[in-house]
Write a structure and sequence with these properties.
With 101 residues, this protein is mainly alpha-helical. The protein has a domain of 33 residues. The protein is elongated. InterPro entries: Ribosomal_mS33.
C-alpha cells in the first residue's frame, strides 16, 4: 500500500513539473484554481494611441503634392489606355450588358 501511495505522489509531482516546464517554454499561464482570468484578453494586440506611435508616419497620405502626382500618373496612364482602345467601357456598355441583349 505504501508503494502505491509513493507512486501516486511521484506521478503527481512529475506531472506538475512537466506542466510547469511546458508553461515556461510555450508562455502559457497555469490556472490551478480554475477561475476565470483576464489573461486571454490581455494577450491580445493593443489598439489605440500607444500602438500607433510605434508605426512611422505615412507621408503618402498626408502630402498633397505626392497625392496629386499619383493622381496625375493614374490619369495619364488611363488616357494612354483609352487612346489604344483598352480603357474601361462607358457605364452600361460592358461585357455583362452586352450579354443581356
Amino acid at each position: 500500500m505504501a508503494t502505491s501511495g509513493l507512486k501516486g505522489i511521484l506521478a503527481t509531482v512529475v506531472t506538475r513539473g512537466v506542466t510547469e516546464a511546458r508553461a515556461r517554454i510555450f508562455g502559457h499561464v497555469i490556472n490551478q484554481t480554475g477561475q476565470r482570468s483576464a489573461h486571454k484578453i490581455l494577450r491580445k494586440k493593443l489598439i489605440g494611441e500607444k500602438v500607433s506611435q510605434w508605426y512611422p508616419h505615412d507621408i503618402m497620405k498626408d502630402d498633397p503634392l505626392v497625392m496629386a502626382r499619383k493622381e496625375q500618373e493614374r490619369l495619364s496612364r488611363l488616357e494612354m489606355l483609352k487612346r489604344r482602345g483598352k480603357g474601361p467601357p462607358k457605364k452600361g456598355q460592358g461585357k455583362r450588358a452586352s450579354k443581356r441583349k
